TrEMBL record:
The chain crosses the membrane at residues 59-82, 198-227. It is a multi-pass membrane protein. Its main location: membrane. This is Alkane 1-monooxygenase. The keyword S-adenosyl-L-methionine does not apply. Belongs to the fatty acid desaturase type 1 family. AlkB subfamily. It holds the Pfam family FA_desaturase. Keywords: Cell inner membrane, Cell membrane, Iron, Membrane, Metal-binding, Monooxygenase, Oxidoreductase, Transmembrane, Transmembrane helix. The lineage of its organism: Bacteria, Pseudomonadati, Pseudomonadota, Alphaproteobacteria, Rhodobacterales.
Length: 343
């Protein structure tokens, strides 16, 4: 837990102080989010050890709640800093980019963990953070569509082999919204109760945009939209990288095989795993969605990326490079399956 807390909280004082004063602290915050994880992952050994089975982490959810509350406060702080005349234009750009990276790399895993909690208050906090970033529907599409249909054509968040990220993005964004809406509406038809979740998402997002207008007028609104777009881009990049090219076989009954460890890419890099709340241990999350993030494991048969997740996401922004680098890794995964079929 100290590693998770230190990695996720450390950049916030740098970003927040930089929003007021600019200067070296602000650039240090940007360097932390943009480069430090990649550098430390190359210098430190891979972490293979798993937490003991049935280990408990009482502080895990406390850190999630703290990070979520800080994530709600960070966009207003960034907007005030970006409209602060004391900051230069490069400093304002650095502030916005560092903030967007924190929201996408730490805020997103935080909200993701919270929406999988059984406690209603924690789930609602995760929903609020997603809706604050104008992507509240992700709470629906992730739980109701992605976990059910992952690694099949029915999941907009699963990219087939050969599809570049920029071709994948429109379907992931639009399909996630529409499929989540369809699933939530079907649930309401069977168990109508309270506001439609999409109405809740819209109200929270409208509150966020109204706050942006109060803080800095049309400029504040534009900046909030920019921060949200940056965070959403990273959310879709994460889904793209963690399931690219992996497919579930179709059985004789026409149904896909059960989800297993081979349907998610994982990484074992120490620092980025701490920074991303163990999101790179993705196979175990799909097998045990409610398992606390410090207890997630690395299955022996789970496919692994050779790069830390943030670096893999950066590579995916250049589709020809991504396809070329991923080709041998997909080929190695396919070979055992061909052997099993022949046997």
């Amino acid at each position: 837990m100290p590693a998770f807390a230190a990695a996720t909280l450390a950049p916030l004082p740098l970003i927040a102080t930089g929003a007021t004063l600019g200067g070296p602290l602000l650039w240090a915050g940007l360097a932390y989010m943009a480069a430090l994880s990649i550098l430390l992952d190359q210098l430190l050994p891979l972490v293979e050890a798993d937490a003991p089975e049935d280990a408990e982490f009482p502080a895990a959810d406390t850190l999630l709640i703290l990070l979520a509350l800080l994530g709600l406060a960070l966009p207003p702080v960034a907007i005030l800093g970006a409209t602060n005349p004391a900051l230069s234009l490069p400093e304002k750009a650095a502030l916005l980019f560092a903030t967007g990276l924190w929201l996408g790399q730490i805020g997103h895993p935080t909200a993701h963990e919270l929406i999988h909690r059984a406690t209603r208050g924690k789930t609602r906090l995760g929903v609020a953070l997603y809706a604050w970033l104008l992507i509240g529907h992700h709470a629906s599409s992730h739980r109701l569509i992605h976990h059910r249909h992952v690694a099949t054509p029915l999941d907009p968040a699963s990219a087939p082999r050969g599809r570049g990220f920029w071709r994948y993005l429109p379907r992931a964004a639009i399909g996630g919204f529409t499929e989540g809406l369809r699933a939530e509406t079907a649930l309401r038809d069977r168990h109508a109760k309270g506001l439609h979740p999409y109405t809740t998402y819209a109200l929270i997002s409208a509150t966020a945009l109204a706050l942006a207008l109060v803080l800095a007028g049309p400029t504040g609104l534009a900046l909030w939209l920019l921060l949200a777009a940056h965070a959403q881009l990273q959310i879709h990049l994460s889904d793209y990288v963690q399931h690219y090219g992996l497919t579930r076989a179709t059985g004789p009954d026409g149904r896909p095989e059960p989800v297993n460890a081979r349907h998610s890419w994982n990484t074992a890099h120490w620092f980025s795993s701490a920074l991303l709340l163990n999101a790179p241990r993705h196979s175990d999350h799909h097998a045990h969605p409610t398992r606390p993030y410090p207890a997630l494991r690395l299955p022996d048969d789970a496919p692994r990326l050779p790069w830390p997740l943030p670096l893999a996401a950066a590579i995916a922004l250049v589709p020809p490079l991504w396809r070329r680098l991923m080709r041998p890794h997909l080929a190695r995964l396919a070979q055992p399956q061909r052997n099993e079929t022949q046997g």
